[in-house]
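Internal ticket #5521
Category: modeling
Description: The requester needs a full-assembly model to guide mutagenesis choices. All entity lines are attached below as received. Residue total reported by intake: 313.
Assigned to: D.W.
Attached entities:
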Amino acid sequence: MHRPEALLSEYLSSADAVRSVVEACADPQLNRREASGAWSVRQIVHHLADVEVGDAMRLRQILAHDAPLIVAYDEGQFAARLHYERASATSLAIFAALRASNVSILERISQADWSRLGRHEEQDRYTVEILVRTGIEHDRLHLAQIQRALHTAD
Amino acid sequence: MSLGAAERAELLERYRSAPSLLRDSVAGASMAQLDGAPPEPGWTARQIVHHVSDVAVMGALRLRMMLLDIEVELWAIDGEQMSIRLRNDKRPITPALRTVEALVESAGSILDSLHEEEWRQPRPVPVARSANAEDWLSANLRHIEGHVDQIRYALTGTC
């Protein structure tokens, strides 16, 4: 793996990039979406927060227990049932706070801890390192989606 | 348990105030105090703050899964084991305090958005022992308030 410091730096900066773009949005911009039927910026923020909650729990489970079961979830159900029309400021706050909290844990784990395993329902191999790399990719994917939505004409 | 609207609103207000109680309970404490042995064997104030934060993470996920009617039999945690493995005796408390504040505010926002029938709808959440959203709120409030008392005792020897 890369040096953990480099990976952690990416893990923090990818979340910061999302936060910076969303914080600069006026409220009406949060309703923009890249295409009809796609999630709005507001819904993406809620999604990022809910995924961060899930990842924070997964990280704690994997580090604290031996090969815990990692449950997969249906993100569409989250959006449909958790009132994603609500204000997104609190979700942006938990996204940032949990990322910082997760990093404060990751900064102190051993090299061996990065390879600790969870038994993911849908993936063959799921380690702390994979959780972090997946988180970075997820941030980038949705940052690009947010940027496309914001550049879509009214 | 079934609450009236006023009782529920009061509970929600107390829940939203709980992170301030937590922050106040450690305000001004020195490093030595945060890490000082409590009057009786148990966690230090620092470890308790992290435990509250870790349980708030679990509670946030349980709330979401509960509202999706997903059974979550797997999230019983070993608090002692988690405290050791997550180095809760070493980590700074500021990220943990911010996490609790953000998660409580977010949960409050989700609970605010629930329709009346969603509050009382029975949910399949065996391990969380929260039969519905009202139970979840009461249990998560009690958890923070209980540990605030424990922190005060750890720091001062009195509740």
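Resolution: model delivered.
Comment from assignee: Chain A is about 60% helix and 5% strand.
Ticket closed.
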